[in-house]
Amino acid sequence: MTARWTLDAQLFHDNVAHVIQNQPVMAVMKNNAYHYGLDFAVNAFLKQGITTFSTTVLREAVRIRKLAPEAVIFLMNPSTEFHIIREQRIHMTLPSPEFYHQHQSDLAGINVHLEYENFLHRSGFRTFDDMIPVIQTNRELPKSEQMSIVGIWTHFGYADEFDGDEYSDEKQAWLTGLEKIKTYHDFEFIHAQNSASFVRDGLFTGHSHARLGIILYGSRPYSSLPESLTRQSLTISANVIQVRQLEKGQSAGYSFAFTAEHSTRLAVVDLGYGDGILRTRSKHECLINGRRYPIKALMMSHMFVEVDSNVAAGDEVILYSNDIRIDEYTFKGVGANSEQLSALNHHSLLKEIKL
Ligand SMILES: Cc1ncc(COP(=O)(O)O)c(C=O)c1O
Question: Whose CA is nearest to atom 14 of ligand 1?
Answer without folding.
Answer: 213
